[in-house]
Amino acid sequence: MKMILAVIQDKDSPKLTQNLVKAGIRATKLASTGGFLRAGNTTFMIGIEDHRVDEVLDLIRTSCRSREQVVSPTTPMGAQMESYVSYPVTVQVGGATVFVLDVAQFEQF
Ligand code: 2BA
């Protein structure tokens, strides 16, 4: 068995949820926050049999798309910490960041 952890954008979460349910695949959704943008995203925990891993990856691939996001980080300028300037930066936020982990044991009571 594998555990798939998929960090996706909130906007794609309803579509992925719907597609997983349609395929009879169980999942848990966690509200998460990206370390860089400090914006909300969604992390799916999906426990799945080894032979269905590719099926899940395909569902994630087709349910999530990448988007550009403009961020305005506040950068300290000079020695005086009070003077700040914003440089808007465009980042490509991925369709999904996916980790596939081996599950040592799985129990349901
Ligand atoms: P964030 O950390 O908020 O990152 C959002 C996007 O900002 C990233 O998209 C990437 O394009 C950019 N970015 C992140 N760190 C950067 C840096 N140090 N310098 C320049 N640009 C940077 P994605 O790579 O598609 O990541 C989307 C979200 O997936 C991330 O949100 C984070 O929540 C998660 N993620 C990505 N890589 C991860 C990893 N290795 N471990 C855990 N979570 C990860």
Structure, explained:
With 109 residues, this protein is of the alpha+beta class. The protein has a single domain (2-71, 88-102), classed as Alpha-Beta Plaits (2-Layer Sandwich). 19% of the residues lie in helices and 41% in strands. A hairpin with a 6-residue loop joins strand 2 and strand 3 (40-48). The longest helix has 11 residues, at 53-63. The structure holds ligand 2BA.
Helix content: 10-25%
The radius of gyration over CA amounts to: 18 Å
Level-1 CATH class name: Alpha Beta
CATH third-tier fold name: Alpha-Beta Plaits
Number of helices: 2
Oligomer: single chain
The spatial strand order of the largest sheet comes to: 2-3-1-8
Which structural class fits the helix and strand makeup? alpha+beta
Low-confidence segments: none
The average pLDDT value, as a whole number, equals 90
Tell me the count of domains.
1
Order of helices and strands: EHEEHEEEEE
Count of individual beta strands: 8
Topology:
Layout: E1 2-8, H1 13-22, E2 28-33, E3 40-48, H2 53-63, E4 67-71, E5 74-76, E6 84-86, E7 89-93, E8 96-102
Antiparallel strand pairs: 1-3, 1-8, 2-3, 4-7, 5-6
Helix pairs in contact: 1-2
